[in-house]
């Protein structure tokens, strides 16, 4: 039995099977389409990923909701009552208020359970970048490390969790305020594809623009070549917005360039996908810097 309980958000975009095998409790964030609320369960019980992206391609708009402190208290308290310590790894504070809700829940619960350790990390990560950081934490817990050791490793290494991604449709970035309407229109006409990353503050930041889809996918791999630490020894994650073939292409290029053996590919779930849209591809790995 694990020495402490590990929690995170559905924005990790890992599979339900991985969460179960690694004994990670994942809290589902909510998204709303056409006035109906859905929870982003990893197993897709409310709405599966294929259906979500089909709805978005048909023109539906999805709005997301962060977790609040009372939800987190209700989720974490039963574990504390059992006498286990708790470690909650939260979605980036640069993209959501969930981390701040988790801090409020921690403070409330610490008063009730002063003998228990309750840690909360602002991962400053998103999608399978958050998922990869949680994966490493879970592996260290399985290796017998204490909650203190795992927490400090995550805090020391989270800014080395690199996120590189590109989108196929600029209009989703326009709607989220990441680019202007004029830039979206001109970029679409010229076939411009932005390459973005998540910075040290956990914000999405455009880094470069390339012309053409294939070049944008190659750019993700080039950025990994420049900063990855011992890539052949790493497990890396790739997520996609209902474009598996493009994700497979990136995986193939990574294997060719850096001999990486272990690569997990999964969907970008509805919460992240509400803002990035169909056709997004993202690459995550440990590097010397973000």
From TrEMBL:
InterPro entries reported for this sequence: DegV (IPR003797), DegV_C (IPR043168), DegV_domain_contain (IPR050270)
Keyword vocabulary terms for this entry: Lipid-binding
Gene3D superfamilies xref list: 3.30.1180.10, 3.40.50.10170
Keyword Transmembrane helix: no
Gene Ontology MF, one: lipid binding
Superkingdom: Bacteria
Statement: the UniProt record of this protein carries the keyword Repeat: no
SUPFAM superfamilies: DAK1/DegV-like
Role of this protein: May bind long-chain fatty acids, such as palmitate, and may play a role in lipid transport or fatty acid metabolism.
Protein name (database record): DegV family protein
């Amino acid at each position: 039995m694990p020495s402490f309980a590990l929690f995170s958000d559905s924005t990790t975009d890992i599979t339900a099977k991985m969460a179960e095998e690694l004994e990670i409790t994942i809290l589902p964030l909510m998204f709303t389409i056409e006035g109906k609320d859905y929870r982003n369960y990893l197993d897709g019980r409310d709405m599966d990923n294929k259906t979500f992206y089909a709805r978005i391609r048909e023109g539906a708009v999805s709005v997301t909701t962060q977790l609040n402190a009372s939800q987190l208290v209700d989720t974490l308290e039963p574990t504390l009552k059992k006498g286990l310590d708790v470690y909650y790894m939260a979605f980036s504070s640069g993209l959501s208020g969930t981390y701040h809700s988790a801090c409020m829940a921690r403070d409330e619960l610490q008063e009730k359970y002063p003998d228990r350790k309750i840690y909360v990390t602002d991962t400053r990560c998103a999608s399978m970048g958050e998922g990869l950081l949680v994966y490493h934490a879970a592996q260290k817990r399985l290796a017998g490390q204490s909650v203190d050791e795992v927490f400090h490793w995550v805090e020391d290494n989270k800014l080395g969790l690199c996120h590189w991604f590109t989108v196929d449709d600029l209009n989703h970035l326009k709607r989220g305020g990441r680019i202007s309407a004029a830039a979206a229109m001109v970029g679409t006409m010229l076939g411009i594809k932005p390459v973005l990353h998540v910075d040290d503050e956990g914000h999405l930041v455009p880094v470069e623009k390339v012309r053409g889809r294939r070049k944008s996918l190659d750019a993700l791999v080039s950025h990994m070549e420049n900063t990855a630490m011992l890539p052949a020894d790493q497990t890396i994650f790739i997520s996609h917005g209902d474009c598996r073939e493009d994700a497979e292409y990136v995986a193939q290029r990574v294997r060719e360039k850096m001999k990486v053996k272990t690569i997990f590919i999964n969907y970008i779930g509805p919460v992240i996908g509400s803002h990035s849209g169909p056709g997004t591809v993202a690459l995550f790995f440990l590097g010397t810097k973000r």
